[in-house]
């Protein structure tokens, strides 16, 4: 038995090294190279860069609070818990993990509803799309529904002194349709809309 183990050990070690080389070095380099060649923007984080300035990623939410901007999903910001030694934020949004049946959650929703109604009193009696008062599982969802975007058009137009049609045109420009018209849902990218509103994206 000992002789068999001794004879198999070199082969097992060689096989382990071969698999490590294939799966840990060659395959990752191959996939990285292909992605950089065929999908360089996506492989590097889908960064929105204009004239050398990086404004963020299409795939990560940013918080906007001014009435002149489109608001995205609720973000539970945490700039203290997740920090590096030099004070830089490593993770700035997390899901709440609160039960929808809890009193604390109900108070949070009520507060968010009140804030949205106060920002646009003309729509006080209009139902608010739920994605404007709830956070996503990641806390970093960059998209909202077309209904949530449309709800904000009048507020944005009034704050900027432009027509609602102009804001609606921008929203449509940055609306992502269902894949093949079947899979997923229509979504609006909040960061892209706000950059377009500011005249950064054309």
From TrEMBL:
It holds the Pfam family KdpC. Keywords: ATP-binding, Cell membrane, Ion transport, Membrane, Nucleotide-binding, Potassium, Potassium transport, Transmembrane, Transmembrane helix, Transport. Its main location: membrane. The keyword Protein transport does not apply. InterPro entries: KdpC. Transmembrane segments: none annotated. The keyword Transmembrane helix applies. It is found in: Cell membrane. It is a single-pass membrane protein. The system is composed of three essential subunits: KdpA, KdpB and KdpC. Belongs to the KdpC family. Part of the high-affinity ATP-driven potassium transport (or Kdp) system, which catalyzes the hydrolysis of ATP coupled with the electrogenic transport of potassium into the cytoplasm. This subunit acts as a catalytic chaperone that increases the ATP-binding affinity of the ATP-hydrolyzing subunit KdpB by the formation of a transient KdpB/KdpC/ATP ternary complex. This is Potassium-transporting ATPase KdpC subunit. It comes from Caproiciproducens galactitolivorans.
């Amino acid at each position: 038995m000992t002789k068999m183990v001794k004879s198999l050990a070199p082969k097992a070690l060689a096989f382990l090294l071969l698999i490590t080389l294939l799966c840990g070095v060659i395959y990752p380099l191959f996939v990285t190279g292909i992605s950089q060649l065929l999908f360089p923007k996506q492989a590097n984080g889908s960064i929105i860069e204009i004239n050398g300035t990086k404004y963020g990623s299409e795939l990560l939410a940013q918080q906007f609070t001014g009435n002149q901007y489109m608001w995205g999903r609720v973000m539970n910001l945490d700039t203290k818990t997740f920090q590096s030694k030099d004070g830089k934020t490593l993770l700035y949004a997390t899901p709440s993990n609160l039960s929808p049946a809890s009193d604390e959650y109900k108070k949070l929703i009520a507060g968010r509803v009140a804030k949205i109604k106060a920002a646009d009193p003309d729509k006080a009696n209009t139902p608010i799309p739920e994605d404007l008062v709830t956070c996503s599982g990641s806390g970093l969802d960059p998209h909202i529904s077309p209904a949530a975007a449309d709800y904000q058009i009048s507020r944005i137009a009034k704050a900027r002194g432009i027509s609602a049609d102009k804001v609606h045109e921008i929203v449509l420009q940055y609306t992502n349709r269902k894949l093949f018209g079947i899979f997923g849902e229509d979504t609006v990218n909040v960061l892209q809309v706000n950059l377009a509103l500011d005249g950064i994206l054309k």
